[in-house]
Amino acid sequence: MEKEEVQILIKQALFAEKRRQFKKKLFILASAVIFAPALIFAASIAIPNKFSDGDTLSAAKLNENFDTLLTKVNDLDAKVSKIKVTQLFDNVVGPLPVTTSSFTTSGGNLYISASGGGYVNCAQPAQDIGFNVQIDGVTKGTIRHYAGTACDPRIAGTGSLLITGVAAGNHTITYTVFGAQTNTGGQSYFYGTLIELP
User: Beta strand pairing status for 103-105 and 169-171?
Assistant: First the structure.
């Protein structure tokens, strides 16, 4: 067998082993993602009647256990059905400010994932740039990032905010400039996703 053929066989064997390890890790991760919520949910249920080998089962006690499970499942279903996702901004071109059209929420807790671009003018030193996130014109938080080099377009920020106590009804989200040092323009793009939590 030639040296080149041996090297090819070794590379193929190494690739096959890496692929096998990757599949194993992917399987473990997928299993964790699939079964973790069920385990957490199951751990939070207090079953009223426990049975041991040799115990006499009664329909009333079994029905009570099933009723407890059914109540928990229905409660969870009601909470999950209230989760609503709204795309606020998708590749919206600056400059800031940018505002969504009006959207309706049931109120409560809103989780906003936001990102956008910007830059520091060449005459200014490198510093934090970013944008404020407003609901109905009231600033609820700031997404910012350190721009290490002036004149260089950067991500003005990427992050998330949890906003609590939002009233039910129609609202708008606006991104406004954070500080005088943040500049946005036609090459600044903005993104945002809102998740309404129960």
Answer: antiparallel
| pTM beyond 0.70 | no
Question: What fold is seen in the domain 84-197?
Answer: Jelly Rolls (2.60.120)
Per-residue pLDDT 10s for the chain (198 aa) are 566 666 666 666 666 666 666 666 655 555 555 555 555 555 577 888 888 888 888 888 888 888 888 888 788 777 777 788 889 999 999 999 999 999 999 888 999 999 998 888 777 777 888 999 999 999 999 998 887 666 666 666 788 899 999 999 999 999 999 988 888 888 888 999 998 887
What are the domain boundaries of the chain? 3-46+60-80, 84-197
Strand partners, 87: 193
- Please state the separation of Cα 150 from the chain's center in Å: 31
